[in-house]
Specification:
By secondary structure, the chain is α/β, with parallel strands linked by helices. It has 13 helices and twelve strands. It folds into two domains: 150 residues, Rossmann fold (3-Layer(aba) Sandwich), CATH 3.40.50.2000; 145 residues, Glycogen Phosphorylase B (Rossmann fold, 3-Layer(aba) Sandwich), CATH 3.40.50. The strands form two sheets. The protein has a six-stranded parallel β-sheet, with helices on both faces. Helix 1 runs parallel beside helix 11 and helix 8 crosses helix 9. Pathway: Bacterial outer membrane biogenesis; LPS core biosynthesis. It catalyses: an alpha-Kdo-(2->4)-alpha-Kdo-(2->6)-lipid A + ADP-L-glycero-beta-D-manno-heptose = an L-alpha-D-Hep-(1->5)-[alpha-Kdo-(2->4)]-alpha-Kdo-(2->6)-lipid A + ADP + H(+). Belongs to the glycosyltransferase 9 family.
Length: 322
């Protein structure tokens, strides 16, 4: 194959973890051009992958509520971009209406999608000429890699390939002055996925005792206030300023340790092979967690939050000693 389009449009963690298939495909088909279709909100992610030639930003929100000529122009432009290349295969790794529409609009003769029973929205099946079934004997990311390798007949390495090249900042972030530092991703979009503030304070104090500065990122005013409450209980901890996704990625790239809930940026830390502890409280650790011995560990599970001691033990298992 000479050209492949991968369609995975959301969300942040899903787009991050799916990037590993690019490394697999390049090894399987030397010289292949791989493009990626994604929601414009997450377009930075495939742009950080040197193995992706073109990033197609689908204006998905405008498809739902077209209100002006500029919306129509953006939609027409995105369709034109989709049809600029003749793809030997289109791989829809999402399986819902919006990804199916993107796949269908390419007019490729070989459009691969999940079998109907495995689709997020079963009506999306109209778009595909070929089907594959995800593997359920592995986590979501490894299962996806295995399903594609079986469909196209190539072998994969057990550990997902590292594929990201994060842009270097124009100036060193202030956080770089506090080395080593740990990023504590306490914030999450769902209340049930949170870990108690008292637990974060206990972990933060333990890190400070070992000479590691805890830094607390945030995305909303509520998350900033939660971070400030944690920092008040941890002498030396700092709440970061509001950062873009790229700035956050640059901080992750410099961090000595990342500890956080099951969120997209913590998945980025695992993809960058940073020492990472991922905390599960309300989602399935076997399905969404990542385990790379000595590098990344996931603890807790759906309905069972880990204790502070479990998190500290997990940190010790991935911590890199001088």
């Amino acid at each position: 194959m000479k050209r492949i389009l991968v369609v995975k449009v959301t969300s942040l963690g899903d787009v991050i973890q799916a990037q590993a298939v690019v490394g697999d495909l390049h090894r399987a088909f030397p010289g292949v051009q791989i493009d990626w279709a994604v929601d414009d909100a997450f377009a930075d992610i495939p742009r950080w992958n040197p193995g992706v030639a073109r990033v197609l930003c689908a204006p998905l929100r405008r498809f739902k509520k077209m209100r002006s000529l500029s919306d129509l122009s953006a939609i027409a432009s995105s369709i034109s971009d989709l049809r600029r290349e003749k793809y030997d295969a289109v791989l829809d790794l999402h399986g819902v209406y919006k990804s199916a529409i993107i796949s269908f609009l390419t007019r490729s003769k070989r459009r691969f999608g999940y079998s109907r029973v495995n689709l997020g929205e079963r009506g999306a099946a109209f778009a595909y000429t070929h089907r594959f079934a995800p593997r359920h004997d592995a986590n979501a990311w490894d299962g996806m890699r295995r399903a594609l390798s079986e469909t196209f007949g190539y072998a994969i390495e057990p550990v997902p390939p590292t594929v990201f090249s994060i842009p270097k900042p124009k100036a060193a972030p202030d956080a770089a002055k506090d080395t080593p530092f740990a990023l504590l991703f306490h914030a999450t979009s769902k209340e049930e996925k949170k870990w108690p503030a008292a637990n974060w304070i206990a972990v933060g104090r333990s890190l400070v005792e070992r000479g590691i500065t805890p830094l607390l990122p945030w995305g909303s005013d509520a998350e900033r206030r939660e971070g400030e409450a944690i920092a008040e209980g941890v002498p030396g901890a700092r709440v970061l300023p509001k950062l873009t996704i790229e700035e956050m990625a640059q901080h992750i790239d410099l961090a000595a340790l990342v500890v956080g809930t099951d969120t997209g940026l913590v998945h980025l830390a695992t993809a960058l092979r940073k020492p990472t502890v991922m905390i599960f409280t309300a989602t399935s650790r076997p399905h969404f967690g990542v385990q790379i011995p000595g590098v990344c560990v996931s603890i807790g599970d759906e309905g069972r939050a880990p204790t502070v001691d479990e998190v500290l033990d997990a940190i010790a298992s991935v911590e890199r000693r001088p």
